[in-house]
Amino acid sequence: MLMDITERLNELKKLIVKYQDSYYKTGKSEVSDSEYDRLFDELLNIEKGHPELITADSPSKRVGSDLTQDFPEVSHTIPVLSLDKAYTIEEIYSFIKRVGTEVNNDDLSFILEEKIDGFSIVLYYEDGFLVRAITRGNGYVGNDVTENVKTIKTVPLKLTEKVNIAVRGEIFLLKNDFKKINESLEDTFANPRNLASGTIRRIKSSETAKVPLTIFCYEGFLDSKSEKKFHTHIEILEYLKKLGFNVDKNISIFSKKKINSLFTDDMSFNEIPDEILRRAELRESLPYEIDGLVLKVNEIDVRDKLGFTEHHPRWAIAYKFQSPQAESQVLNIDVQVGRTGRITPMARINPVTISGSEIKNATLHNQDYINQLELCIGDTVAVSKRGDVIPAVEYVTEKNTLGNTIWHIPENCPVCNCVLVRRGAHLFCPNTECKARKVGALIYFCAKKQMNIQGLGEKVLNLLYENGYVKEITDIYTFSPDALLNDNIEGFGQKKVMAIKDAIFESKKQPFRRLLAALGIDEFSHNAIDLVIRNGIKSYDDFKNLVKDKENAFKRLSSIDGLGPETSNKIIEAFTDVKILSILNFFDSMGFKMEEESAENTQADLILSGQSWCVTGTFEKFKSRDLIHDIIRKHGGRVVTSISGNTTHLLVGENAGSKLNKALNLGVKILYESDFIQLLNSMGEVYGKET
Length: 691
What we know:
This protein is an alpha+beta fold. It has 24 helices and 23 strands. It has 6 domains: 53 residues, Helix hairpin bin (Helix Hairpins), CATH 1.10.287; 237 residues, 2-Layer Sandwich (D-amino Acid Aminotransferase, Chain A, domain 1), CATH 3.30.470.30; 104 residues, CATH 2.40.50.140; 73 residues, Orthogonal Bundle (DNA polymerase, domain 1); 78 residues, Orthogonal Bundle (DNA polymerase, domain 1), CATH 1.10.150; 71 residues, 3-Layer(aba) Sandwich (Rossmann fold), CATH 3.40.50. The strands form 6 sheets. The chain has a 6-stranded mixed β-sheet.
């Protein structure tokens, strides 16, 4: 009897899978809806009566469960990084040239794929069965959303071969499906990506199953023990298709040699601009959203040679479509001198509003960019917010009638008059004594995210520098603020001077990681510092001992997940630099904390590991957001400034603004101040009104 039931169950599964595959490949059903429902109901009844017969690839997994679930964190076994970005054809050609030069091979081929505007996922298969579906997370640790992803009918539960493989893909909603669903909702979603992201994070997989999500897969990583080896990206895509994955067919190949592919004919490198333009024009007619294109090296051995930075693979680049734009007139152009000496030309424009923000200034990047635009003062230009963050001039829409010619960066620094030098595409002021560089370093050191010396803002530091009180960051701790009173400096009364003295004194209590960040060492960001500290390099002595053997120091640093070779070299250079060592020795002699106070990395210490936190609003129990940021980092979490599909938690205070709505749309976990304090208390830390 049981044998008969098993045979019938297997027969039902084969029929249902066959009808599902046929529908999703052709858009047509081989049977009526009522017949399909009858077969599916029979399958569910058998499995309900004989749960021991349920298999991992059963079509019933597509229905989901009403059981609530959390999303435990799981480490990725493959690199899940972001992409470097390009906004112009010239940048694409520069990428191709750089790759060819680095590997000493100009006979490479490249693949152009659509950049689906969806939700990134990694599918892990063992012996051909889907065992885990993990969100991108921070690139190293993501959330396990397997039960929800199993409800997506275009995600194979069982592959055509018994292989161990990790597959990257993008989950998305078709435009028409998004429109229908959004029209039925009281609280609508801004776009299909947000709805897809929120759906994947539903706590009941049965709710996820009601949304017609789909997927395109674009990268496959076989188990290291596999005998099968790929030579090209095209081979990977063809193999994914053979295994049963949904693969985007809109692919272009640029090559000097003939490549036989199931997907497309070869194109020459000269056709890249036309192809990108064609794809951009077709964007609106596609049934799904794309926000750009991705160019990848085709040859796998070349990819292996190029490797990765801590942020992105060096063998791929995303061409981003133009962001929301507005038109404005360029009133003037001047240059900013950064603390590293880098010269950045800035267009001063008639104020315009983009994505809710008033824009008065827009970056022009460098002289090459200005030349490319043929930009003159008085021109009317298109302005965008690149990545929805940085205002930039995109192109000239109308030339000026004033007779102005292409604007050029002066040959000399506008602050110290030193002759500028070129490094790559940018100009730099080489004078380390330049006022702009010195004051820039002081401002950076005192800022909230670094030493948080309240009262020493840009205006005050400029005044202190001009009057000779503070020239170096070490002078902050040797000059007497009382001198401002004694010298009758306007605007500095007893109360203000006392506040500055207190702020300087309090800054000496900042943790070692803050002091490191405040030095402004190139490439050594807050997140990079956090990675190094978490990997056991926690004190000034640790750094000094580390760099005694530069070769071993590089090996150790570059082996840390998230640190690239460039950052590793910069760290070694910094801790062998006489000037930086002199500054650190000064702080050591002044009694600063020269060791990070996180002696034990217990499970409780790193309870936020792998989580990505955004903080918004104001709080009653915490003096500043930076204090909250430090607490999150201390316990292993990552701090981000904006909400995205990779954000796991939003901590909300008073006057939260738009970030709360965006987080709700994306399905990000929301915590309020009381929730956060409760979480900290559960870890043995007490935060109250005295904090």
